[in-house]
UniProtKB/TrEMBL annotation:
Pfam families: DHDPS. Gene3D superfamilies: Aldolase class I. InterPro entries: Aldolase_TIM, DapA, DapA-like, Schiff_base-form_aldolases_AS, Schiff_base-form_aldolases_CS. This is 4-hydroxy-tetrahydrodipicolinate synthase. Homotetramer; dimer of dimers.
Amino acid sequence: MFQGSMVALITPMTSSGQVDNAALEALVGFHLDNNTDAIVAVGTTGESATLSHSEHQDVLKRVVEIVDKKIPVIAGTGSNSTSEALELTQAAYKIGADAALLVAPYYNKPTQEGLYRHFKALAEGVAIPQILYNVPGRTVSDILPDTVDRLAGISNIVGIKEATGSMDRAREIIERCADRIDVFSGDDPTAVELILLGGKGNISVTANVVPQLMHDICAAALSGDREKALALDNIVKPLHQNLFLDPNPVPVKWALARMGYGHEDGLRLPLVPLDESLRAGLLEAMRKTNVSFS
């Protein structure tokens, strides 16, 4: 249903922290012009945790309108509250998103049974394709393979974004569930290996900055061309490394501001602008990857 390079889109903001609609429109256009395969809007990279519900819906609506069905739009609608996630997912369905991406509930530390019931309730509550999102390093909530296997039997749960970076975990889920759901990488440095194992694509932070290159990397991996995929991935490795030296999305928003999309101080507390000690390294990574910036 979905495959290739799917950008985990930032939400551009002004220096005062307001959503920058002009920059958002330009950024979406940048992705449409550079072969991004799908856009994940208002997800965790899009700072969903600090957007109000009305802002969340306004940003998603604008992205859906700009994209105009040229590529799929996947809405981040997860929450640590099942009722809140249900409300956000219902809104995404009404707005016209093609799917919902649902991060594992954070802070609550639910059991595997709690995770199963949470995602089952969302799938039964909204008739939209849904993608699980497992990122225990951020949520302290790990959707284990047994639970993924159970959830894969629900018809509108169509995929999982697996962001542990563990190839053993990815391999197990693909072997057990790939006939029922698609597996996507959520970890840029290991995405090529996951796709070569049988994954269907990468939900990528790095794609914000180099969409065409990330599309080409995913296309090569999906075609089984290991040599080409790894050669292209080697080009982008400095970006993979430098975009995660401060909490995401701080570095990528700083990089995009240098490219003309939003403001480098366009963040909401408790996030703060990129540490000055990290800026030269990120600029050098951008130069090495032939990114144009001012």
